Amino acid sequence: MRLRILVTGGAGYIGSHTCKALAAVGYEPVALDNLSTGHHWAVKWGPLVVGDIADRARVANVIKEFGIRAVIHFAAHAYVGESVRQPQKYFDNNVVKTLALLDTLLEVGISKVVLSSSCATYGIPQKLPITEDHPQEPINPYGASKLFVEKILHWYEQAYGMHHMNLRYFNAAGADPDGEIGEDHAPETHLIPLVIAAARGVNPMVEIFGTDYDTADGTAVRDYVHVCDLASAHVNSLDHLFAGGQSASVNLGTGHGHSIRDVISAVEAVSGRAVPVVEGPRRAGDPPTLIANPQLGQTLLRWTPDKSDLRTIVRTAWGWHRKRRLEPTDVDARVDSLRPALA
Asked: Exposed, middle or buried by CB within 10 Å (0-12, 13-18, 19+), for 57?
């Protein structure tokens, strides 16, 4: 019998790709999602339970009914700019509701958790590339909420033996190479789909915020990781915990950065279309460069981000968005468009 894994937020972008990766190696993913931002069509490799992580009775029943052995926790709000405007929303959903989830796991005897965390917990980098021992000083409520949960898990392990892996993503990007699932946010705030939307004429242009950074071409540089590589890191994290491995926090990045202009050029090369660009001023809080030191994750988890070259990321994303034929979006709704700073 296959081990069943509860995937909270399993109908979302990274969650759905992780469900596919879990099923491919013999786990059975059970997606729990309230569908506030996730999509029913993205759940293809196991059952979908529609519900909220704060509904303790429902979560406990699902764990008992399916014989869940571990949890991968994605369910969270994840818009940096929105978190600044609505911190209550983020602390309630990302911290208070997660605490309810973790308390339910204690109640039913689940002791293995893989957390979707973020490089947003580091804040403005003091050194590059960023290692896991870099000071964690988040500059927005989203990053603070993720850091808070990391601290909860630390103390829950000390007191209750809740073993865990904190996976600190850098910039998730790309789509399933088979074209079955991909990125579909509303509003969309991630750089690559915004550039693709401009290339396809879905949006009239893409705006670059800041062209005078101390980088090779003056635009911000970020570490992009293919979503399928992120998914494989979650699978490897489960294997690590089931094998009795110690809890840890690891960066999920490549150690290589690409500028905004690099991304635009890659989309133009893959699509054969010009991308209309408008240049704007910097935004407060955007670091010039964010690049991970991925060595610990690669060593501890035996993880290799082998799909995370920029061309593969853009090619798979382009294929997905062409297949989906996304409806036009209001450019004025891009409150945080091109926030590549914090994944």
From this structure: exposed
How far, CA to CA in Å, does 289 sit from each of 209, 262, 292?
A: 14, 14, 10
- Position of tokens 């759940």? 43
Euclidean distance between CA atoms 15 and 42, whole angstroms: 9
Closest listed residue to residue 38, CA positions, set 60, 58, 18, 68? 18
Cα separation of 98 and 3, whole Å? 23
Nearest to 206 by CA among 52, 16, 337, 328: 337
Active site residue 142: yes
Report the candidate in 112, 91, 293, 80 with the shortest Cα–Cα distance to residue 187.
80
pLDDT digits (tens, 9 = 90+) for 177-206: 999 999 999 888 899 999 999 999 999 999
Share the mean pLDDT of the chain: 93
Catalytic site residue from 142, 156, 213, 224? 142
- How confident is residue 285, by pLDDT bands cut at 50, 70 and 90? confident
Is the confidence at residue 329, as pLDDT, over 80?
A: no
What span, in angstroms and rounded, lies between the C-alpha atoms of 159 and 26? 32
Give the CB-side neighbour count of residue 329, counting CA atoms within 13 A.
Answer: 24
- Adjacent-strand bridge partners of 166: 115, 249
Q: What confidence category does residue 325 fall into, taking pLDDT thresholds of 50, 70 and 90?
A: low
68 — phi, psi (to 5°)? -65, 140
Dig out the tokens for 259 from the structure.
């500028």
pTM: 0.93
Q: Are 46 and 28 in contact (CB under 8 A)?
A: yes
